[in-house]
Amino acid sequence: MTRLALLLCAMLCAGQAQAACRQALALALDVSGSVDAREYRQQLDGLAQALEAGTVRQALMQLPQTPVRLSVFEWSSPDDTTLLVPWTDITSEHILDGIIATLRGTNRVPRSPGTGLGSAMQHGAALLEQTDCTLRTLDISGDGQSNLGPRPRDVKRQLAGRGVTINALVIGADTPTAGDRRQSEIGELSSYFRAEVILGADAFVETALGYDGYAEAMQRKLERELQTLVIGQIVRP
C-alpha cells in the first residue's frame, strides 16, 4: 500500500480518530569530517531555501488540522548528534518561518570526523518513534559511506516492519580528484544508499551533484515526500 493510500485510509476510515499529525519528517544532516565549512553552510542554507520554496511551503500548509511534524538534527560519528529543531507541528507560516530562521542562524560546532551512518539511522528512527503521526519518514543527507559504528545494512534490517520510511539525499563531489568522474561517483554512492540505507515500499534516493546543487535537490525531495491528497472537506462520523 502506498503512502498516499495509507494517508487516505487514516483520514476516512469510519470509527477511527484522526492522528495528531499526518506525517513526521526527521531531517538528518551530514556534518562529518568530509563536510567543510563552506559545504556545511550550503547544507543548512540549502535546507532553509527548500523549506521556503513556494511548492514546499504550500504542501506543508495543507490540511492544518493534521499537520506535518518536523525535526532537524546533525550527525557525524556514532553518538555525535545535535538536535537543531525539536519536533514542531507546522501549523502556520510563522512557525515555518521560525524554523527557517533557526537553520540560517545555526553555526557549526566542532565534530568528530567519522561517518556513523548506521547510528544516524538509529537516532532518527528513535526520534520518529516518539511521534503518533500517520506516516513517519527519516530523510538522511550524506556524501560518503559509513566507516564507524553499526553497519547501515544491519540497522536497516532491525528497523524493517517498524513503520519507518528512510529516504536519502546523496551528495556527490564538487571537484573530483581525477577528471570529471562526478556522474560515476555519485552513481556508485547512490547504489550504496539504495542497497544499504533506504527503507520502505516508497523509499527513494535523491541526488545532488555537489553541494552547489544541494538546495534544488532538497526541494525536489521534499516535494516528493510531502505529496498528499487534498480533500476539500473531511466529515468525521
TrEMBL record:
Matching Gene3D superfamilies: von Willebrand factor, type A domain
InterPro entries attached to this UniProt entry: DUF1194, VWF_A, vWFA_dom_sf
Protein name per its UniProtKB record: VWFA domain-containing protein
Provenance organism: Pseudosulfitobacter pseudonitzschiae
UniProt cross-references to Pfam families, sorted A to Z: DUF1194
Residues covered by the VWFA domain: 24-226
Keywords per UniProt: Signal
Extent of the signal sequence: 1-19
